[in-house]
Specification:
The complex is a heterodimer of chains A (107) and B (221). With 107 residues, chain A is mainly α. Chain A contains 3 helices and no strands. Classes of the chains: A mainly alpha (107), B alpha+beta (221).
Chain lengths: 107, 221
């Protein structure tokens, strides 16, 4: 349970991780070897519902926290990285690396 | 482009290896992992679990790399995992999101349950550089050798978490003092670490943090 990229979100992240881990152990348990395709699907559909019921609320809170933080941090990272690359290539002869090497925000 | 593939066997069953793989951060072998966040997670209609995590890793440029191009020696990594509990397979693909022109590393790991109860890990890596300036081959070779060294450490990290999980299952949780879960000695610092400027040695503080977090979760379960 590592830290979140935003320290403010770490407590929510850890609460979510604990919730997920407990659910995940049960999810990994094998279903009966002779179970039919239909009953297996129903089993995992129930597992998905159970996960949503148990961890859905904290997951939403965690994601909301993260998205706020990413917006701030992402734009800061773009600026920092942009400056780095500019300073290297600004001297005029090469712009070829600028666009592809720019930090891409994952959202 | 450089390609590398290897396989490894864990003696433990697939479900516990999978759990350890998901729980592997933080551990004393992964002090370069600065943060790890789940950005999407869902159960697919076929019952598989899809997870996307965003990980921030600290790195270092090799000494021979031109100065000034990368001053921010951190890299965002995206990890996409599919867990298939019916077929007993985990597939995980990882790639870096930034510095991709300098070097793009794509890793693919598969954990498969074997009929004898063990777990097979198959790892593939593709290292590609489009840097030019006569350094492309050297960057790719460097990236690959780092990958190999780090893979060993990553495996040791998973093994350490596995050991804790095993111990926690052998004794009833919530009973007994904290000290009943004994930890292995801190790993020695590796000669080839995640950075050329010296591997951060896992210290007691780091170990206490990660293990107490893991233990507190194990106790709650």
């Amino acid at each position: 349970m590592a830290d979140s990229l935003a320290p403010a979100c770490t407590p929510l992240k850890q609460e979510y991780d604990s919730c997920f881990n407990q659910w995940f152990e049960g999810y990994l348990e094998p279903t009966l070897a002779n179970a039919t395709e239909t009953s297996r699907k129903a089993h995992y559909a129930r597992k998905a519902e159970e996960f949503e019921a148990k961890c859905g609320k904290v997951y939403k809170e965690y994601q909301a926290c993260l998205q706020g933080a990413v917006k701030e941090r992402g734009s800061a990272a773009i600026t920092a990285q942009g400056k780095e690359i500019e300073s290297e290539f600004y001297e005029g002869n090469s712009t070829r690396c600028i666009h592809s090497a720019l930090f891409r925000v994952p959202f | 482009m450089k390609f590398f593939a290897t396989t490894y066997h864990y003696d433990d069953p697939w479900s516990i290896v999978t759990l350890a793989f998901f729980l592997r951060y933080p551990n004393p072998y992964a002090s370069h992992v600065l943060s790890c966040d789940v950005v999407s997670r869902s159960v697919s209609p076929s019952g598989t679990l899809l997870t996307t995590r965003l990980i921030l890793k600290r790195g270092a440029m090799p000494r021979w790399f031109p100065k000034g191009i990368v001053t921010r020696a951190e890299s965002w990594v995206v990890e996409e995992t599919e867990v298939d509990p019916i077929g007993r397979v985990v597939s995980c693909k990882t790639r870096n999101l930034d510095h991709v022109k300098i070097m793009q590393v794509e890793e693919s790991v598969v954990f498969k349950s074997l009929p004898d109860g063990r777990t097979l890990q198959h790892t593939e890596a593709r290292v590609r550089s489009a840097f030019g300036w006569g350094l492309t081959k050297r960057i790719e070779a460097h990236g690959l050798s780092k990958f190999k060294a780090n893979m060993q450490r990553s495996r040791e990290g998973v093994s350490l978490v596995l050991q804790l999980l095993r111990q926690s299952r052998l004794q009833p949780l919530g009973l007994g003092p904290e000290s009943t879960l004994s930890l292995p000695a801190p790993p020695p610092s590796s000669p080839v670490g995640p950075s050329d400027s010296g591997t951060p040695t896992p210290d007691c503080r780091t170990q206490n943090t990660w293990s107490s977090r893991l233990k507190s979760w194990l106790r709650r379960a």
